[in-house]
Design a protein that fits this description.
The chain is an alpha/beta fold. The chain has a domain of 318 residues: Rossmann fold, CATH 3.40.50. 53% of the residues lie in helices and 11% in strands. It has 18 helices and twelve strands. A five-stranded antiparallel beta sheet has the order 2-1-4-5-6. Strands 10-11-3-12 form a four-stranded parallel beta sheet, with helices on both faces. Strand 5 and strand 6 form a beta hairpin.
Length: 667
């Protein structure tokens, strides 16, 4: 029999169990699987302390060609662990394909566990077939529920009992996530790692391939580490609150950038305003007094401009010029009317003169000839002759004196008409001259009016621009004061942030100091467990890094050991629970830890170390369940530590005594 390494202290010397705990807060007394109610497939009794589920590996002979597959693997060890977790509250126990296969084969199948919670016995029964009823009832046995007619209660009463008994009232409030029973399900995840995780990392508890819908799947590594620290009481809700407050403090770099920008901008504005207002300051513009002086000067400048008001418009001058323009337009209208009348008289006299000179008669003769031809159709006398000498058929005799008199009168009329025509033409010329003069006068008046109006507009625009510029100076002086206030506020925030940061940092340090003894004890247990596994020459320690990471270091003769850390860490947490130093129950399940590169001698040490832990009380103050394909040490195999032996080489030797998924039940 292999002995513990020399100088390795006995467990009773290294561990001080919590005297208030007569038994583990939680441990499982039985796991029963039924084909249907009343027809048992497996009934596995478990004990406090070490429990070994062994599935012997047939070794080399079974590896020969033609031999039936099976042996240590495929016997149902992992399925046993997951059914146990299922009874303790996890949502499922396998991936969909295996659950479907089991449900098809065992439609009325059930699995149940008797669980002790703070000394109270609970019976839990859950379906593995197609039924949907779940029971969790305290102070009952599995048989009484299976054989009775109790209404289904669901799994919630068990979860409520576990949570109320095991989880500190303030723990669930600060744990990450939102799942209703997350505190216990996180603890269960840590206490029963997935076999697929291979014990590779301290914080790998659930593997995606397991498909058991654990809320652990939504946690980041940082959140999982927080869970570990909370469970091990290496951090408190008060410290988390202080850290949260510290994280919510204003960003120091951002405040410094704001202060720097405000300083540059106030200097720039101060220089611009000082020049624009022509002010001589007794204090810098970046001083509140200087900014106030600039703001006062800007307001006075604006007030002065407003008092001066808009330039007076040339109203009277414009009114006089407009009156002149209206008069000129009126005169021009009269002159235009006179000119039109004069032109009419000229045209009339021209026509009269033409008639007097016979031009009208000629026009009449031409009209007659156009109608009758060149000769009179009655007397055949030429029309021109008849018009000059008279018609030979006319009864009116020709009077020579009368004709002479008429010619004389005609000449007088011609002279009079010509004289009047000359007069009217003179009037026309004079009227046109006056009209041209009035048009020029109107154009000149319009030019003057437009010029004055443009001058008024320019003066108004110049004033408005001046007032706008003055208002801008007021606004910029106000902006300067605002920037100075902001800079002062940023500086105040920066100063306060520094004080608050120091206060919170000191508070966190004090709170961490309270947990330092726990961390020291955790490190002592880790060193103790590591020496128990690897020998007295082993150097091992745990520490919390500045990035809030738990670092595990294990060395033998200076050679670092990268494997086994998860196994060592779990056993360390188990010892902390035994001593009452953690929020975890002293309950641990390891599914085939040999695959974590455990050599045979180390594997045997694991069993012997746990057996030694049983001496910590009259009854073991913990429960440790381990599955293995490796043959346990003789003293373990020949004792009640070996609670069940499975055999993957035969159907009857498998956990459910059935073949699933191509003949493999589960690893």
């Amino acid at each position: 029999m292999e002995q513990q390494a020399e100088l390795f202290p006995e467990s009773t010397q290294a561990v001080q169990p919590d005297p208030s705990r007569a038994e583990p807060f939680l441990w499982v007394r039985r796991l029963v699987i039924w084909e249907e109610p009343g027809k048992t497939i497996r009934d596995i009794s478990l004990r406090r302390g070490l429990n070994v589920i062994w599935s012997p590996d047939p070794g080399a002979p079974a590896a020969e060609l033609g031999q039936r597959a099976g042996g240590g693997h495929g016997a149902g060890k992992t399925l046993f662990c997951r059914l146990l977790r299922y009874c303790l509250g996890e949502e499922t126990f396998a991936n969909y394909a295996l659950r479907r296969s089991i449900a098809d084969t065992l439609p009325s199948g059930l699995v149940g566990a008797e669980v002790s919670i703070s000394g109270t016995l609970w019976a839990v029964i859950r379906p593995i077939g197609t039924t949907r009823k779940h029971w969790s009832i305290k102070d009952r046995t599995l048989e009484s529920i299976v054989e009775g007619n109790d209404p289904a209660t669901g799994i919630e009463p068990l979860l409520e009992a576990i949570t109320s008994s095991l989880v500190p009232s303030d723990l669930e409030q600060v744990l990450p996530g939102t799942h209703e029973w997350r505190a216990w399900l996180y603890a269960l995840g840590w206490a029963s790692r997935d076999q697929e995780c291979r014990f590779d990392h301290l914080l790998d508890w659930r593997h995606a391939d397991a498909n058991t819908r654990s809320p652990l799947g939504s946690l980041t590594k940082e959140e999982t580490l927080l869970v570990v620290r909370l469970f091990l009481r290496l951090i408190s809700g008060e410290e988390l609150e202080a850290r949260e407050k510290r994280n919510e403090l204003p960003d120091e770099g951002e405040l410094e950038r704001e202060i720097s920008y405000s300083h540059r901008r106030t200097e720039q504005l101060g220089d611009e305003l000082t020049k624009a207002l022509s002010v001589t300051l007794t204090v810098p513009a970046t001083d509140p007094l200087g900014a106030a002086a600039l703001q006062n000067a800007a307001k006075q400048n604006l007030s002065k401009i407003n008092r001066e008001g808009l330039p007076a418009e040339s109203t009277e001058q414009l009114r006089a010029l407009q009156q002149q323009l209206d008069d000129a337009i009126g005169q021009s209208a009269v002159i235009s009317d006179q000119l039109a009348k004069t032109k009419g008289l000229i045209e009339l006299h021209q026509e009269q003169l033409k008639a007097l000179r016979g031009e009208r008669a000629n026009l009449d003769a031409a009209s007659i000839k156009a109608k009758l031809g060149d000769f009179c159709p009655v007397c055949r006398v030429p029309i021109d002759t008849a018009l000059v000498e008279g018609c030979t058929l006319s009864r009116r005799p020709t009077d020579a004196d009368q004709l002479s008199s008429e010619k004389g009168d005609n000449q007088v009329q011609i002279d009079q008409c010509s004289s009047a025509l000359g007069t009217y033409r003179q009037q026309e010329s004079e009227t046109e001259r006056i009209q041209s003069m009035l048009s020029a006068q109107q154009e000149s008046l319009r030019t003057q009016i437009n010029g004055i109006r443009q001058k008024d507009r320019s003066a108004r625009e110049a004033f408005l621009q001046l007032r706008f510029a003055a208002q801008q100076l007021v606004d910029r002086s106000s902006a300067l004061s605002t920037l100075l206030q902001k800079r002062a506020e940023f500086q105040k925030q920066l100063d306060k942030r520094g004080k608050d940061d120091l206060t919170l940092k000191s508070q966190i340090e004090k709170l961490r100091e309270q947990h330092r003894e726990t961390m020291t004890r955790l490190n002592e247990h880790f060193n103790y467990v590591s020496k128990g596994f690897l020998g007295a020459g082993t150097t091992a320690n745990l520490k919390l890094s500045g990035q809030d990471r738990i670092l595990a270091n294990v060395q033998i003769g200076g050679l670092a050991m990268t494997s086994l850390k998860a196994v060592l860490f779990d056993l360390t947490a188990l010892l902390m629970s035994i001593e009452g130093r953690s929020a975890l129950p002293a309950f641990l399940v390891h599914d085939s830890p040999r695959e974590a590169d455990l050599g045979l001698s180390l594997y045997h040490r694991l069993f012997r170390l746990l057996r030694e832990f049983e001496a910590l009380g009259d009854e073991p103050p913990f429960q440790y369940i381990v599955t293995t394909t490796t043959e346990p040490p003789d003293e373990i195999r020949a004792s009640d530590y070996l609670v069940e032996t499975l055999d993957g080489s035969t159907v009857q030797g498998r956990l459910l005594r059935r073949e699933f998924i191509g003949g493999l039940e589960a690893s």
